[in-house]
């Protein structure tokens, strides 16, 4: 049976207690997007500033939610700052692959390698791997990423 | 705060509930989620087991001995439920699969036959989704108007404008006790006001019937819905009490066997009450289990159950406030006399899912979420709460375990 330490790794708690890039950006020019998890009430407001080259010049996050959703958002903000939209796309797919590996194995699939996962170093984000042992909490971890994808799509449109 | 005399020794009663002796994560379970479902005493488990082992057969059909025994046992259970809530006749006790079905039965059967466009249905801001959605379903179908009784600062119904809300109302449907706030509502005041306005009254008794003595005559309710599994009975069995003349006039809800007197190629005639509303093979074992639960609760005494929960409510509120001060906010009325043993709380600004996840590691079972009361959550301005709830088998040690586990939770997240 997975224990608390599998879910709440120290680095996750660090990001929860000291969230990175917390706050707001003036919008416009920054793009503002909201994400919502109606089942548990997690909400995230993401401010995205893309420069002329399509890189994330700045990102800020506000909102409220559980430690997993908040720390995932904090880690994500640190990971995508300065990255191009293409790099973020790879990162997002790698992160989601990490989250869905276990979903597949729950359904009995024998996959041990992520399907279609780009070869990207996840760094601190690896700490969220334990979340897959608590299926109820996966949507908490992916909320920020889904919101970011929506924001990039809207900002690039 | 003066602690009230507690007539029940919850610690001793635990012995009668097999589940309460199990371990979780290597620790003895501390079950504080009885508002979601109660645990079951041996008396109930044995009654259901005995049915399957000795008299399993379909009811109201067979002429052989065990079928007659099963039918008798089921109808004895109905009489027990009748007396438990002070109904006049067994005809007024309809078995459903849960309280949600009971509320749907009234809304859809009585509602479709009696409501027309522009008619008003009055609900409150503290209703469970089961007493909201069936009415929402009738809005596009019939064109009824829904009105909502507001709440005051302590989570009690604000009845200042009740008479105005009831103008043009055909139905008043409210809970006797909030599953989130613990608020116990003044049911008699509500049913009197409804009657005066020419509306029928429907009471959701899910949280009240298991925890205090209930008499439908004194409540003045036209309908009362409650479930078996929150009152020491099994899942899969609910009750709808209805006044006989209203039930007689209502069209049937589900069609099939049992609910008919005669079926011809050109139509059917319905059976007598209460079977008119009980289509198909009923949940026989569950009915018998509910009967055993009623007998068990009668043995304890419902006034004792209420007194026990008042004492435990005083202990819970004072303990949590003494231990945590401003770190904890308990929703609902502050007076134990105005509330039941349901404690929704915010703690240390932590998300309820994080709280319940850590509490689980300490074998403390509490609920986290919106408790099927999203309009109330929105009114309170929160997405979710953690909720601890007590019953007859809980004791002060359970509350101490909750407080200790909350202490550990705070330390875990806010170091």
From TrEMBL, chain A:
Please list the GO biological process terms of this entry. Answer: iron-sulfur cluster assembly
Instruction: Provide the GO MF annotations for this entry.
Output: iron ion binding; iron-sulfur cluster binding
> Record's NCBIfam families?
SUF_scaf_2
The NIF system FeS cluster assembly NifU N-terminal domain covers 8-100
Full protein name: Unannotated protein
- Sorted alphabetically, which PANTHER family does this protein's record hold? IRON-SULFUR CLUSTER ASSEMBLY ENZYME NIFU HOMOLOG
Q: What SUPFAM superfamilies does the database record attribute to this sequence? A: SufE/NifU
From TrEMBL, chain B:
Picking any one GO biological process from the record gives: cysteine metabolic process
Alphabetical list of CDD domains matching this protein: SufS_like
| Cofactor(s), by name | pyridoxal 5'-phosphate
Which EC numbers characterise this protein's activity in its record? 2.8.1.7
Q: Which UniProt keywords apply?
A: Pyridoxal phosphate, Transferase
Catalysed reactions, as listed in the record: (sulfur carrier)-H + L-cysteine = (sulfur carrier)-SH + L-alanine
Signal peptide range in chain numbering? none
Domain Aminotransferase class V: from-to ranges: 30-402
Gene Ontology terms for molecular function: cysteine desulfurase activity; pyridoxal phosphate binding
What EC class does the entry list?
transferase
Q: What is this protein called?
A: cysteine desulfurase
What organism does this protein naturally occur in? freshwater metagenome
Taxonomy-wise, where does this protein's organism fall, top ranks first?
unclassified sequences, metagenomes, ecological metagenomes
């Amino acid at each position: 049976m997975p224990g608390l330490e599998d879910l709440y790794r120290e680095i996750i708690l660090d990001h929860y207690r000291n969230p990175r890039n917390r706050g707001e950006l003036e919008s416009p020019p920054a793009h503002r997007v909201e994400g919502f998890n109606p089942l548990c009430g997690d909400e995230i407001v993401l401010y995205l500033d893309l420069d002329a080259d399509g890189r994330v010049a700045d990102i800020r996050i506000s909102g409220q939610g559980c430690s997993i959703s908040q720390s995932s958002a904090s880690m994500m903000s640190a990971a995508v700052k300065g990255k191009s939209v293409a790099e973020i796309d790879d990162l997002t797919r790698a992160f989601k692959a990490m989250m869905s590996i276990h979903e597949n194995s729950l359904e009995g699939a024998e996959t041990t390698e992520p399907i279609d996962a780009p070869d990207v170093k996840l760094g601190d984000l690896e700490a969220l791997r334990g979340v897959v042992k608590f299926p109820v909490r996966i949507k908490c971890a992916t909320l920020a990423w889904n919101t970011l994808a929506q924001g990039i799509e809207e900002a690039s449109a | 705060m003066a602690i009230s005399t507690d007539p029940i020794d919850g610690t001793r009663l635990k012995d009668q509930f097999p589940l309460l002796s199990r371990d979780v994560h290597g620790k003895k379970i501390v079950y504080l989620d009885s508002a979601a479902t109660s645990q079951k005493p041996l008396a109930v488990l044995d009654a259901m087991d005995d049915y399957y082992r000795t008299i399993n057969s379909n009811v109201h059909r067979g002429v052989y001995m065990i079928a007659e025994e099963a039918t008798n046992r089921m109808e004895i259970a109905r009489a027990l439920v009748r007396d438990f809530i002070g109904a006049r006749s067994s005809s007024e006790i309809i078995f459903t699969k849960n309280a949600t079905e009971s509320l749907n039965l009234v809304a859809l059967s009585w509602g479709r036959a009696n409501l027309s466009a522009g008619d008003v249905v009055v609900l409150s801001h503290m209703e469970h989704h089961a007493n909201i959605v069936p009415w929402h379903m009738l809005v596009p179908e019939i064109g009824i108007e829904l009105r909502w009784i507001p709440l005051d600062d302590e989570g009690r119904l604000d009845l200042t404008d009740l008479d105005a809300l009831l103008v043009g109302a055909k139905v008043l449907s409210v809970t006797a006790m909030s599953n989130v706030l613990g608020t116990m509502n003044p049911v008699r005041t509500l049913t009197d006001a409804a009657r005066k306005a020419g509306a029928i009254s429907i009471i959701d008794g899910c949280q009240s019937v298991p925890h205090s003595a209930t008499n439908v005559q004194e409540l003045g309710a036209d309908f009362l819905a409650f479930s078996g599994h929150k009152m020491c009975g099994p899942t899969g069995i609910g009750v709808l009490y209805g006044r006989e003349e209203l039930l007689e006039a209502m069209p049937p809800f589900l069609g099939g066997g049992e609910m008919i007197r005669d079926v011809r190629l050109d139509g059917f005639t319905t059976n007598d009450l209460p079977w008119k509303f009980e289509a198909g093979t009923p949940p026989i074992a569950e009915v018998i289990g509910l009967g055993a639960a009623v007998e068990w609760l009668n043995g304890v005494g419902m006034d004792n159950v209420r007194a026990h929960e008042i004492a435990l409510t005083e202990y819970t509120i004072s303990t949590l406030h003494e231990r945590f001060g401003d770190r904890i906010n308990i929703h609902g009325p502050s007076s134990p006399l105005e509330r039941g043993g349901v404690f929704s709380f915010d703690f240390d600004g932590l998300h309820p899912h994080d709280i319940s996840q850590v509490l689980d590691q300490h074998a403390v079972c509490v609920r986290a979420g919106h408790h099927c009361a999203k309009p109330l959550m929105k009114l309170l301005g929160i997405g979710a709460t953690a909720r601890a709830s007590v019953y007859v088998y809980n004791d002060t040690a359970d509350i101490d375990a909750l407080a200790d586990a909350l202490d550990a939770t705070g330390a875990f997240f806010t170091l």
